[in-house]
Amino acid sequence: MSIETGAEKQPIGAVMVVGGGIAGMQSSLDLAEQGFKVYLVESKSAIGGKMAQLDKTFPTNDCAMCTISPKLVETGRHPNIEIMTQAEVMNIAGEAGDFTVRVRKQPRYIDPDKCVACNDCADVCPVIIPDPFNEGLAPRHAAHKLYPQAVPNAYAIEKLGISPCRDACPANQRAQGYIALIREGRYQDAMRVIKMDNPFPGICGRICNHRCETACNRGLVDEPINIRALKRFVTDKVYAEPRPPIEPAERLYEERVAVIGAGPCGLTAAQDLVMAGYGVTVFEAMPVAGGMLRLGVPEYRLPTAIIEREVQDIVDLGVDLRLNTRVGNLDDIFEEGFDAVLIAVGAHEGIRLPLPGANLDGVLINTHFLRDVRLGKYENGSPDAPALGKNVLVLGGGNVAIDVARSAVRLGHAVQMACLEGRGEMPAHDWEIAAAEEEGIILHPGRTFERILDNGAGGVAGVECMEVASFSFDENGRLHVEKVPGSNHVIACDTVIFSVGQRAGLAFIPDDAGVGLTGAARIAVNPNTLAATRDGVFAAGDSVSGTAFVVEAVASGHTAARSILRYLQGDHLEPPRTPNLPVVRLSQGEIDARVARGEITPGARVPLPQLPVEERIASFSEVEGGYDDESAQREAARCLACGVCSECMSCTFACGTGAIDHNMVAQDETLRVGALILAPGYQIYRAELSAEYGLGRYPNVVTSLQYERMLSASGPTKGHVRRPSDNTSPRRIAFLQCVGSRDQSHDYCSSVCCMYAAKEAIMTIEHARAEARTGNGDGGVKCQVFFMDTRAYSKSYEEYYRRAEQKYSVEYTRCRISDLKEDPDTGNLLVHYSEPYAGNNDVVQKEFDLVVLSVGMEISDSVKALGRKLGIELDPYGFCHTTLFDPLQTSRPGVYAAGPFREPKDISESVTEASGAAAAAARLLAPARHNLTQLREYPAERDITAEEPRIGVFVCHCGSNIGGYLDVPQVAEYAQTLPGVVHAEDNLYTCSQDTIAHIIEQVKELNLNRVVVSSCTPITHEPLFQDAIRQAGLNPHLFEMANIRNQCSWIHSENWDAATNKAKALTRMAVARAIRLEPLATTEVTVNKAALIIGGGAAGMTAALTLADQGFPVLLVERADRLGGNLKHLRYFVSDNGINGHGIHLSPREFLAEIASKVKRHPLIDVHLNTEVLDVSGFESNFNTRLRHNGEVTQVQHGVIIVATGGVEYKGTEYSYGTDPRILTQLEFETRLADGDKNSLPSSVVMIQCVGPAEKYCSRLCCTTALKNALKLKHLNPHADVTIIYRDIRTYGFKERLYTEARRAGVRFIHFDFDRKPQVTVGSERDASLQVKVQDPILGRELALKPDLLVLSTPIVPSPGTKELASRLKLPLNMDGFFLEAHVKLRPVDFASDGVFMAGLAHYPKFLDETIAQAQAAASRAANVLSQETMLTSAQVAVVDPEKCVGCLTCVRICPYGVPQVSNSYHGVGDITGAAYIEPAVCHGCGTCVSECPAQAIQLYHSTNLQTLAKVDALFDIWSTTTAGFVPIESIVEASEMPSDRSPHDGSKL
Amino acid sequence: MMDQNFEPEIVSFCCHHCAYAAADLAGSMRLEYPSSIKVIKLPCTGRLDVLFVLRAFEDGADGVMVAG
User: Fold this and answer.
1) A69 to chain B, minimum CA–CA distance in Å?
2) CA-CA distance, A1067 to A1074, in Å (whole number)?
């Protein structure tokens, strides 16, 4: 069991725990307490695991969240536990004691250190997805907290990556974001996110070439989202509102930038630069700004008003726009004092092809023509616009050519177009061509332009063309055309407009300006930085790239601005490399699956209205209409939300602490640890894979985990069970067991399903009864469980199961159902089954309203992958392979496993194993204890006892959580008027790091001696603020909180005044108590490092070695004359993995010899044989125990106790035991099989299960032992006939395989119930045979068996003397005589009394591996105490004033922990000898004794009567004038005006 | 008889471990109850002294609720 590490080499004192469920948390807490640094790696955004999802826990029906929540908080706050969320282990190197582990942390997009969990991000998040925590039964936002009590108490954003629409957009427009916002009708927000990346949304919403739509995943379903139309819709909505004034950007820097050209590129850059704090001047040669948008794009596509609006929005930021200002020379700009220049002049120079006749009158150029149209020259009849003839021919086939043609149509001309390309090859968009044709434009595609014919008067008569056979461009970009010979023809026209391309006009850049040009007359730039060849000169847009779309100009403008910023700030010009977020591209398969699951409903685009052709050609009115609200929202709802998070950035704007960063990327961290504990948990069986159950197809079939969420008061139905199909209350519920367990693909039992089904049925009926009591139903709900064997095998489980059956009338039907169908009319489910065990083989049909599938446990693919990465051995199902003697050790030394990862198991066993694994790791790393942990240093405490109260009150807005529902500043103002308050203020987030620092400062500066925070709940936040005032030098008990969020703003959100008044009252009450708070001291007790272990069996010896190997001395007390306990009697193990550390198979006796020898040889283990414990006194950390050995009494001192007194096999008189040598117990039978004559083996054996006390509790071992022995006999004598008469075969977990094996081997099984027990007759003289009569329910008749041997499976009962020991140690027993743990689920090896632990059969019957794990767990819990040098007692303890004590023993009797004692060392009232004493080291601080003490002799520090009564009084605005303790209260109340007109009370009880 | 607008002032003594946490959850779930209910936290309902109840009534409470 021990790992040898190099003697000299010190191991690393840190452990990585993988999995943040209940097991991982327990391992972490134990190790951190014991002085090891813990890295807790969790794949989700919060710890808590499956247990956090559960409603209640069996068998106590405790609320799961209520029990796990304190553990969550403890784990989250432990200084030595570092929680790594959304993290996974990538790889591992090294060996036990020194591993190097690489962990990848996925981005959560919210910094948990800055997040104050105010929910503001989720409030504004438009993305709604099914909530996995609620198993898909409720919606959730992409910005979310896993569940309300999550730790870390921080939000996360679910984002798979960038949506393809954003990725495709040159300007990185967050299209998914504004689409989501449009769907919600949040148009202003949508506009805001668009404007973050694009200052021209109205323009792009009309004329963008929308690559986003090409990339849109929706195209794989039907048609892409009409993103461009949605963008236009938003701008139309927003621009229809009055334009809000725009605040000029703040000028931060002296430097000025000149931008040449007021097109989309130049203006984008100007905006970015002015927003960054620089001075910007834009020079524009034209009389209007907007560049090509204003002068190239026709009005019918892009109304002027839109351009003017968007240009003005930029100008108003403080950009100096100089129109009609042509830049003549670059040098002039620099001379004017500009520090940088951006050339963004666009491409306004149209190209006139060098054809014959190209210079005739009536030959026009596209750019000039469009500009003249746009400037209204044709409509105004301006003389400087060239006249158009009747028949216009446009040469060119691009989008601009179409614009030219359609503009000419609108001016009333007949228009034709001719172009080189064929009809299908034209560069113009198809819809543009179609629209042109609709408007009567005649197309002549596939033509060359040979020459322009002269009409004889210097004008145009037509263009001679030839037909094109084919054309191509060579590598120099030169055109090669193959013409159809003899195809010459003339297209008659009187005006020709060239529209074959544009280029930049760069005349202002002289050759000697130092700015280089490319061959294609563009400016030469570095493509990354857009820097031209002259320092300080940049160029962007069409003048660099050639003609492009407006969104590319925008993107180019942004790039140039970023580059110029770097230039001006002296940074390296090249942009910094940033990792890219992944792009979410869905495959057709994924799309089809989502359609199949009903998540996507196919449906084409919502159509857009278009202007009729006749209206179009009559004017320059906009052709395309926009969506109305309804159609826009409908179109937006088609979005598939590819990235989940839409990056709408609403959260970024809403977050008041700046915690959100959408650019986070995955990060790897490399850590050194000495050991790893794997507790990754399980996933539930995906029951949709078993199609016969209809999960996913039938809405009223749910999984048990979904059902847990329904039952949970904080679940989607608030604890009301509702049918998913119609939200009605089901009255007939079926639970189907073994779904994904004990079937062809799972040869194991999932161990927990029987119990949770019983629990869910009980809770269902409880809920129905409660609803009936409140008049919401008649309580009439029936639950029926279809099962094979009920596996109620653990402590109190049998009793719980019987309660379900008897007290709650849950109907148990022993069968697997044969069929399940839905009635499509009602949604009800028709279940077909037969009941062979009830003697009925006919198939019957029963109708249910709801079916719950009790799904089993599986290991997820990611956990299997983890196993492979760590190189540990897994079984074919992915469960971790471990061995019998070292059950928590994986196949890799230094790596341990706990929980369902080893084998399906429940919470209490997972917690046990978690502690056990911690002990195994601690044993390995003990030399490095405290090497890496740290204690927080605090300044010396200020003595305030002589000071009058000086209270500081901090009232929290909690973002809008409080501030949005009540008047926080008014509460703070009011607090200022309260007695004792010297300072009050309100804070946006009182718990944020900066406010905490501020509070510390205020305490020091204003000499505050008490602090009140009015904010949220003390359960999560009190420790944080207490820590803050400690840092300010105050005793932490001088702090008080008022919960004005959970108890006020969240509850009374509809009533501002009521909430404000209540917040004032709560604050007033807190102040009243704060006045009376006193500094309290904790005392230190030195810990005795020795452990007393009672019992020398497997449990005791394992615990002893586990502790002694860590350096703690052990006193091992054994009543018998040798060590070994039940190991002495055991002859075979159940499984064949009883392998020791050297890989050798050991029998039970060999194992005993090995472990006993280790114990005896260990220098730190002091074995006391033949020794009994007489009594124990003292408390955790310092016990005194008297031992008796051979009549001699000795006293020992120790810090902890482990009780491992074991159990024995029951021997009673049931079934004639003791009257005939042929009737044996299992242990006797086992001995006989092992030691007896192999030639006289019995040929027939009957075994009877559940004998004697096992009728009351399940002894857990007997079924498996019976199978073990039956198989052993079958092995020795294959002809032997074995019959097992049983109630349920409870082979839980992997033991199920033994059951399968026994059935295969021909072992016969006959079921019985306690009301029809088998009858045993020992035989008379006439017939000496042994006879067992039993009713076989399947055959429907009584069988009379005559076996050679009858073997009784008798249970384990507690060892003799357990009851006496329990009373000597004052420890509780359960009804069956086993020791009772502090909490079945979460403290399974602790006693309620601190410092005392248990392990082994004394706790409950269990197998050897379970005993070893539990003993390790007990050792771990003990080590939590032993590894401390001193223990701090709590300050909130009860203290007796002996002078008032009458020694009545009320406190002794009432204390739930048995702490008070009447001691003769004290003298009570009247100086009588004997007064109560409460040991502060053990007091739990509940105060029960205080309230009960008739003499009022006890007070509870920090919860005195005076403190509580002050609160009650203050609620009614009554201020007590009583002097109490050291606080001169009168002076405070006198000093401030007493707000009460009522007579003051005498509060001087204490 | 009863005044329609009568809102009883209720003092609720809650156990730190269970009922107080339940009241927190009620807030998280945005459940509603009248603002005239005020919670006073006790370390355990065992700490409830009859004096607290009497004082609440004496001060003017219309009802006292103990939850734990």
Assistant:
1) 9
2) 10
Q: How far is CA A943 from the centre of its chain?
A: 44
Per-residue pLDDT reduced to its tens digit, A1075-1131:
999 999 888 899 999 999 999 999 999 999 999 999 999 999 999 999 999 999 999
Q: Check CB contact under 8 Å for B42 and A1503.
A: yes
Alpha-carbon distance B65 to nearest alpha carbon in chain A (angstroms): 13
Give A1538's pLDDT tier (boundaries 50, 70, 90).
very low
The reply to whether omega before B43 is within 30° of 0 (cis) is: no
Q: Are A384 and A477 spatial neighbours (Cβ–Cβ below 8 Å)?
A: no
Residue A200 has pLDDT above 60, yes or no: yes
pLDDT at A1542 over 80: no
Which of A308, A334, A317, A311 shows the shortest CA–CA distance to A272? A317
For A641, residues 6+ apart whose C-beta sits below 8 A from its C-beta are A127, A129, A163, A176, A180
Q: How far is CA B6 from the centre of its chain?
A: 17
Residues of B within 8 A of A1456 (CB-CB) are 46
Check if B8 contacts A (Cβ < 8 Å): no
The residue assigned the tokens 């050297």 is A1142
Distances from the Cα of A524 to the Cαs of A203, A287, A540, A566, A576, in angstroms?
Answer: 28, 28, 10, 20, 22
Q: How far apart are the CA of A1062 and the nearest CA of chain B, in angstroms?
A: 6
| Contact at CB, A1513 and B55, closer than 8 angstroms | yes
Partners of residue A1047 in chain B, C-beta under 8 Å: 23-24, 27, 38-39
Q: What confidence tier does A177 reach under pLDDT thresholds 50, 70, 90? A: very high
**pLDDT confidence band for A1520 (50 / 70 / 90):** low
Which residues in chain B touch residue A1509, judged by CB atoms under 8 angstroms apart?
A: 51-52, 55
The mean pLDDT value of chain A amounts to 92
Q: Which of A1437, A1512, A1546 to mutate to test the interface with B (most CBs of B within 10 A)?
A: A1512
User: Which residues in A lie closer than 8 A to residue B63 (C-beta atoms)?
Assistant: none
A1487 closest CB neighbour out of B24, B43, B55: B43
- How confident is the model at residue A1521, as a pLDDT? 52
Q: Is B27 on the interface with A (CB under 8 A)?
A: yes
Tokens in use for A1317?
A: 């027990």
Q: ipTM score of the complex?
A: 0.98
Interatomic CA distance for residues A347 and A343, integer angstroms: 12
Query: In 3-state terms, chain B is what percent helix, strand and coil (to 5)?
Result: 35, 25, 40
Whole-model pTM: value is 0.85
Cβ within 8 Å, pair B29-A718 = yes
Rg of chain A in Å (alpha carbons): 42
Please write the tens of the pLDDT for every residue from A1351-1408. Answer: 999 999 999 999 999 999 989 999 999 999 998 999 999 998 889 999 999 999 999 9
Closest CA to A1314 of A1288, A1283, A1352, A1291: A1288
Q: Which residue of B has its CA nearest to A715?
A: B29
Interchain CB distance below 8 Å, B56 and A1019: no
Query: Could you say which residues of chain B have pLDDT below 50?
Result: 1
Residues A628-656: tens digit of each pLDDT: 999 999 999 999 999 999 999 999 999 99
Say whether the peptide bond before residue A224 is cis (omega within 30 degrees of 0).
no
Which chain A residues contact residue B51 at CB under 8 A? Answer: 1505, 1509, 1549
| DSSP bridge partners of A162 | A583
3-state percent helix, strand, coil for chain A, nearest multiple of 5: 30, 25, 45
R_g (Cα) of chain B, nearest Å: 13
Output the pLDDT for position A5.
47
Which structure tokens are listed for A174?
Answer: 């967050």
Q: Are B55 and A1545 inside 8 Å of each other by CB? A: yes
Whether A1513 sits inside 8 A of B60 (CB atoms) is no
**Quick one: which H or E segment has residue A1189?**
strand A1182-1189
Is residue A1524's pLDDT more than 70? no
